[in-house]
Amino acid sequence: MQxxxxxxxxxxxxxxxxxxxxxxxxxxxxxxxTLRLLNLKSGEKLIDLGCGQGVLARAIxxxxxxxxxxxxxxxxxxxxxxxxxLKHRYTTIDATHTILNQRADKIAIILALQNMKKPFAVIRxxxxxxNLKGKLVIILNHPAFRIPKHGDWLxxxxxxxxxxxxxxSPLEIPIESSxxxxxxxxxxxxxxxxxxxxxxxxxxNGFVIEKIEEWVSPKKxxxxxxxxxxxxxxxxxxxxxxxxxxx
Length: 247
Description:
Elements: H1 11-18, H2 24-38, E1 45-49, E2 65-70, H3 73-82, E3 88-92, E4 104-110, H4 119-129, E5 130-141, E6 151-156, E7 159-164, E8 171-176, E9 187-192, H5 195-204, E10 207-215, H6 226-235, E11 239-246
Parallel strand pairs: 1-2, 1-4, 2-3, 4-5
Antiparallel strand pairs: 5-11, 6-7, 8-9, 10-11
């Protein structure tokens, strides 16, 4: 039997951790930097693939036409209930399927491509949707340093290291929503690929990479280990942002 990789079953968990305005990293890192990279202009249309409960929509300028797509109907219902902008609309759809009759000047995929089983199909759809000179902005948990269940911290001689036991091989990684509450525990899936994979699927679908940025955590530690922890936090990025355009 084929695994159900939909996030519909973990929508309540996701809603709880993200909230109305996004979690700490949404507010402090992801949204400000994504808006900077999108550089939205009046009259442009933005498509948000894997939009969840519409956190990005509530952060963009009010005069931007916006369309959010997500596979989870519950997340889409939440997004609609929180968004009163008449220029915004939401649709429940699998982003790996053909998205008909859509055009956009900018597309954002924020912390969502890593949870889609067929990323090539998603990027192919982006190529079909984007207008000439359109921009695609992809935000990922950093694929070299944040591999669920395959990366960890090691402290040795007052230095903190990041250790990785898997990088080049693709992985399908089950993620438990409530590992200590088996009654309410649900599985979703994260898909790991190396950096070269994302370069390849963008190139194969007619994109050129304009920029890659790596974002670290702005958090600061306290206590006797603060200097060590802050140094490691500033050197090992949490997120990777890629800006690509149609060539």
